[in-house]
Amino acid sequence: MYKINNIRKSPGSILAVGSYRPAYQSILDFDALSGKPAPSIVAIVGSSKRFEKYFWRSKEVLIPCYKTIADAQKVIPNVEWLLNITSARRAYQTTVDFFDSYPQALGAHIFAEDVPEIQAIKLYDEYVRRGKTIVGPAGVGLIVPGSLKLGVVGGVDWRQVAQNHLEQPGATAVMSASGGMINELITMVAAEDHLLSFALCFGGDRFPATTPGDAFLAAEADPNTKQIVYYGELGGVDEYDIITLIEQKKITKPIVAYIAGAIGESFETPVQFGHAKALASSHDETASAKRKALRGAGVKVAESIGELADLIKKLPKDEVAETTLDLTGRSESLFTSTISAESSDGYHFVGKSLQDWSAEGDIALQVTTALLGRLPKSAVTVELVKNIFLLSVDHGPQVSGALNTIVTARAGKGIVDSIAAGLLTVGPRFGGAVSGAAREWFDAVQSDIEPADLVERRARAKEYISGIGHKKYRLDIPDPRTVILAQATKHLDKHPYFDFAKSVEAITTQKKGNLILNVDGHIAALMLDVLSEKEGYAPEELNQLIDADFFNALFVLPRMIGFTAHYLDQKRNDEGLFRLPDADVFLRDEK
């Protein structure tokens, strides 16, 4: 088992797999009470959402969610602990997947009950023997006050954590096979002014990955632990292993204990109690036999819970400080915005006050920050966005969006209606191809598809390749906008998306000169490369941006300025209602 004192020295980052909101919130509350600078749960796997909302102190915080552990690892490369809330059927494979993705992780807690015994033994052999700590199955976890809360041990309400002072390290280790009883023991210990050094629930299955012997040795090695409170049950021989360790002087710290289940001896045949292990198959496994054996080894053993409370009361007490953080009065918000806020000193937009944005005077930086939802890391990103906007603001009054804006303005409508009419024209045939091109290049590069294979697939399906083709410009008459955009590659070490797109162009232009990589294709490929290299976006994050239509926003936002200019131009000209001349309309002869 990993050294308890080393756990105190580590950040305690947790990857949670499964769904158990009360448990996750209790961990964040423990972190807050312990004075941690940030939540220890860094991601949740298995949720269908992008984020889940929890309270961090008195405010809300978003915890990122991922479909798989491998997806999470691409974005969050370092995690120490797994909190496994999956079913017994999935618990083993989920734990294996975690350690495959995070081989340097310290350990895991498996909440599920009735994990197949052969799988529990495999977990012990494959990971615990190699120094990992796995708590469970069929337990409630591990808590190291002030440092780590891995599971529902200690309760799921912040008041339980505060009342029992679980944010304050102490000298008493508490151990139990029972998830329900360990929280009772923690309360009993805290009620007598004892602070915990740590508490661990082995779990009630027959083969817990961390055995009582392992936990006792960890307590012995822990400099903070001065005494041990242990709750055992009938069934199994764990207590005899502990006795052997005591006799070998490997465990020397004082122990108070209670072994539950003496009532089972009143039955003629062995009775199965709550846990899988709680079945006395022989005399040595009965509660009475274990109590007697432990006493013989020098352990103070209670005959009842009341007597256990008396023994705990006599243990040396700790100095307990008052818990000052109050987490009452929190209420959930109706929706989430990470972009802006109103405060006493004015309005804030993506991390800065509007006064600061004004003082900096860099609209390109502000726009890039707004699109990314955070300050960009590189000036190359800002420069690319600036050029995209400058080159996309307008493409003449003939194109669909501008024409619809003009027609609506001449019909006497206002600015909002006119711009909306232009925007509603944006789609796969006008201005909406940037996201389609991004999807084309991204999927191909991530799947290692050859450019020729992509072209062949689209040709057979009689489908256009998004980002390829232009009505006016050709290979021998290049689009001057794309020449400027392509200069972004000079600031990149690698540009796999742009290279792929240009390779596609080399094939398509052999068929027809105007099947060039157009401005949409350039924007999509170059932005993928810049976000990947300069902003550190993982493939999963790029995929999410494509799904969110981020790349089409690079066309829509600057084009709104062009639509606005056309609207105001028409109001100045005041030419009246527009009507197509009859000569420009083909009228079918019904005769």
Which helices and strands occur, and which strands form pairs?
Layout: H1 4-9, E1 14-17, H2 21-33, E2 41-45, E3 51-56, E4 59-66, H3 69-75, E5 81-84, H4 88-101, E6 107-110, H5 117-126, E7 133-135, E8 141-144, E9 148-151, H6 158-163, E10 172-176, H7 179-191, E11 196-201, H8 212-221, E12 227-233, H9 238-247, E13 255-260, H10 287-296, E14 300-302, H11 305-313, E15 340-343, E16 346-349, E17 352-353, H12 354-360, H13 363-372, H14 379-392, H15 400-410, H16 415-423, H17 434-446, H18 451-460, H19 480-485, H20 496-511, H21 519-533, H22 539-547, H23 550-573
Parallel strand pairs: 1-2, 1-5, 2-4, 5-6, 6-7, 10-11, 10-12, 12-13, 13-14
Antiparallel strand pairs: 3-4, 8-9, 8-11, 15-16, 16-17
Question: What is shown here, in short?
Answer:
The chain is of the alpha/beta class. The protein starts with a helix and ends in an 18-residue tail after the last helix.
